[in-house]
Amino acid sequence: MLIVDIAGSVALTTRVGQEEAGRRIKQLLQGIVTLVRANGGLFLSSSGDDVLATFEGEDQGAANAAETAIEAQRAADAVGLQLYAGLCAGPVEFGENLGYPTASGQAVNLAARLHKLVDDAPGRIFLPMDLVGLLPLDLQNEASPFGARKIKG
Predict the structure, then answer these.
(1) Quick check: 86 and 113 in contact, CB under 8 A?
(2) What is the rounded average pLDDT of the residues 81-93?
(3) Which residues on adjacent β-strands are paired with residue 102?
(4) Which residue(s) pair with 55 in the sheet?
(5) Quick one: which of 127, 87, 92 has its CA closest to 106?
C-alpha cells in the first residue's frame, strides 16, 4: 500500500489563492496517479490532496511502491510542494464503494498511520523496518531509521 498526501495545501491556498492552488494540486495528483500506473500499481482513490494505491507482489510490489513514492516526491519538489508518504505491505481486502475500488486491512491502516507519522516531516517516506528488507539494495542503502514511534491503534 502507498499513501501520499500533499503537505501544506492550506498554506498554498493562502499564498496563491484557491484557483491556482487547486490547479497545482490537481496537476500534481494527476501526475502521481500516472506514476502509480506506470510503475505497475493500481490507483484506488484520491480524496482532497492524497492518493491511495496498491502494488501487487511482496518484493516487486514494495520496490514499485517505493520508486513511485520517490518519483512523486520529485514531482512535488518540481512544483514547489512536498508530500507525506507511507508504505506498508500485507494482506489487503478489495471491494467496491460507489463504483470505485476500495481496499481495507491492517496494511492500509498502517500505511495511513505512517504517511503522517511526523506532521512536520514532509518530504520523507515512512515504512516499517521489515519492509526495507524487501526493497532493492540501492534503496535499502538509502533508508535510514527515524526512530521508534508509537502508532495509534
Answers:
(1) yes
(2) 91
(3) 95
(4) 41
(5) 92
